[in-house]
Homogentisate 1,2-dioxygenase
Amino acid sequence: MNVSLKIHAVLEPYQKDSSCSAMSQGPLQALCRQCNFLTKSQNNPQVCPYGLYAEQLSGSAFTCPRSTNKRSWLYRILPSVCHKPFKPMDQGHLTHNWDEAETEPNQLRWKPFGIPRASEKKLDFVSGLHTLCGAGEPKSRNGIAIHIFTCNTSMINRCFYNSDGDFLIVPQQGKLLITTEFGKLLVEPNEICVIQQGMRFSVEVFGETRGYILEVFGAHFELPDLGPIGANGLANPRDFLVPVAWYEDRQVAGDYTVISKYQGKLFSAQQDFSPFNVVAWHGNYTPYKYNLDNFMVINSVAFDHADPSIFTVLTAKSTRPGVALADFVIFPPRWGVANNTFRPPYYHRNCMSEFMGLIKGRYEAKEEGFQPGGGSLHSMMTPHGPDAECFEKASKARLEPERVAEGTMAFMFESSFSMAVTTWGLKTSNCLDRTYYKCWEQLKSHFNPSCK
Ligand SMILES: [Fe+2]
């Protein structure tokens, strides 16, 4: 193949290609398809082809075992280091101050978070970040944060990177065209994407846009182990898509703003050129996306419930075996067939924290009140479960095979951290539903000592 043809391949726009998998577990864990022609036998030649600079992005300690070692090599027109010094900038409602509001142990539910119109207030993906809750902190590399993003404007000559951790982004309304150093990702509702620590990206939106973000400090997301399930099932590696290289050689004369979230605060720096100047890359540290419709659901086919961990898409492990910093769990459309079983979610008190969101449809345990674009938080050991109406209905339902959650996609961020809720979450957002507790008030006793 001659060089010009190979360059064309490098510039191929993003497309679905199941041969590219960010979750590949091959011995080399490398995605070399895009730049073999640049550096066939080494990463960092004395002079790179086409006059490019080589830059490594490390996503793990150099010394991590091969199974967890992550890095990519980027071949770019100018290296990332060419910028003016970072200065503090306004960070709106983004915070990692977990002591700003009174501790709140109650069940919490939020109405859909409002999205201002662009004619009222312009918000892009970064200025539209609102921290809802979280725990831990990035300095010690142990913690999580849950953010809501509401925006109506594309990022123009602005990019963002998170020095603190990884973003798992769940769009709920409006699609996101995300330009990254690795290429472009179009992410629509019912898809998710993960932008890992340090990766620069800029978000284009197409109207009023809203979604959820799970941020983890100190671990990367990975597929859960399958144990007795075997080699296939849940989220399969082949369905995770990574972008192909895309670049622009664009000068912006001191007017391109690079925003870094560092130790929970935002900083901005100016530079003269677009940071999306990576002509080719290879490596196993990449952004990626996943369509939730590809999740292979496994569930009880006899009686009782499997625990919701059976619906885990991605997990960010803590250092304690079996305990996650946070899991991303979904409740997709599926068949319910369990015999002699109360089929909705069971009543529950958990040693983990459960934040739930709804991308579309109606959630089975609470058909009213929990709406797309809203959320709920059931904190550590805070009781929760189906509302009174759901209990009465499901206790009397004739048990036949039935479709559950058709047209619906609810999800849960489940964490081993005891999370604090921010002032924005409790007050400023003006979305907290103070009547939530009432949905259980109608539950009545059915106890009858003489009737077994
Ligand atoms: Fe629960």
About this structure: The chain is about 5% helix and 35% strand.
